[in-house]
Amino acid sequence: MDEPSSTSSATEFTSARLLRCHSKRDDNPFDDVTQIWQAVFQPSKESTLVATCGGNTVCVIEVETAVVMYRYTYDNGLLYTISWSAACPNNNILATGGTSNTIVFIDLFTNAAYLQYRLSQNTCTNLFINSIVFHPYEKKLFCGQNNGGLYVLSYNIENNRIVNIKEICSVCLDSEIIGLEYSSRNDCLLIATNTGLKGWNNNQNTDQVLLNFEFPDNPRDKNRNDEIIDSVTIVKNSWIATKVATHGVIYIFNLNLALINMENNKCFVNPAYVLNWSKTENYYMNCGVGDNGKLLACGDDKGEIWIYSFEKLNFNYYKTDAEVIGAKSIFKWPKISNSHLKKKNLDTDDDNIVVAKCAISHNGKYIVCVTLNNLVCIYTLD
Asked: pTM of the prediction?
């Protein structure tokens, strides 16, 4: 663990801790190749636990102390996604998955990976699970694969554990699934893919036609048609934040309104707010929302964290013209003082730090960012 000196331009947050807890050897400070992909806070509003996922490891970190409370190592491949169960009474179950096409269930009461479930196999090579999301109150789990396979699983709960996993249905998309988000207000699963944002109606059967969301033209180049959606998340109620990777902005739109404007399964998105973001051409940088929808954070490929405040935004009515909003603050990547890292040429003060995911605690006091060079950074509200 290293103590950084903050170079943030923000006054309300300071970087508190940097951790390298996903190395194959947990005491190896020189591993800068393990990629950490995901960070998710426990659903409980009082909790200060965040789960991170990357390499072949899951870590559960207590953010107030920056102590790794639990560390799970998977022997059969890499892990790309993780989700907390919200339907279990105590939110004690984690589900994770990755390259082996297998979901691993972890019980934090006993600190044990107690169950593995392998998705039905097809002929695709290099198949892996990109995203796992629990339904917020039904006993369902949604899983997305890199080859476009979307699975809906059911389960039972016994003794605070998820058991009896069954496949309800599966849908094949002609796209790579990058991420999943579930809107309980609209009973709709939002699917981020490399060919746009899709929607799956939870009330319909496996034969339904998926919804296609149409976003505004690329503000940087109207002749470009690429729509790689590398981030979709709920802001609050029916308000959605979506990042089209090469647009250089993050769109905030109302899902109710988009569904009303649907024609032949095409939903036309009229953003109420457009957040100016990085002009990078890279993708796989995922947003996070916290503090009851008042705060959004998204990292870039230079180690910067873009912070947006929604406190003064009105989410109670539909806007016809998009309002362009700049970041409230942009955190520069913290400089660290570690002579061993500098000797090994592994100091983190450079422009090649890709922040794969930002997660914000429910009370807005902590922001956790994970990078593709094996770092977990915890920012704390002053």
From this structure: 0.92
